[in-house]
Amino acid sequence: MKTTFGKQNYQILIGGFVLIVLGYLLMIGGGSEDPNVFNPAIFDTQRITIAPMLCLLGFVAIIFAIMWRPKNKNTEA
Fold first, then answer.
1. Which entry of 12, 21, 27, 48 is 20 to 30 Å from 3 by CA?
2. Which residues, 6 or more positions from 75, have their beta carbon under 8 angstroms from its beta carbon?
3. Is residue 1 part of a domain?
């Protein structure tokens, strides 16, 4: 029985999901206990730059995992 995805496709897919979850986890926090006090931690480089880039990289990895087809050893015409 031949499946649509191979083992490498699933590994890349899981890696993409891990990157997305990691990106969202890095965005958490920076809030203030008191609503009248401003906390500048919400504008850290981690939350503004690194976390969205990890999420984007995860989405690209998932698209790559879906579209990528491994080369077959037996090429059929």
1. 21
2. none
3. no
| H-state helical runs in 4-46 | 7-27, 45
Report residues of the chain scoring pLDDT below 70.
Answer: 73-77
Instruction: Give 77's contacts (C-beta < 8 A, 6+ positions apart).
Output: none
Global pTM reads: 0.82
Q: Residue 54: which domain range?
A: 7-67
The Cα–Cα gap between 4 and 68 comes to: 11
| Domains in the chain, number | 1
Residue corresponding to tokens 């850290």? 44
In angstroms, rounded to a whole number, what is the distance separating the alpha carbons of residues 42 and 31?
7
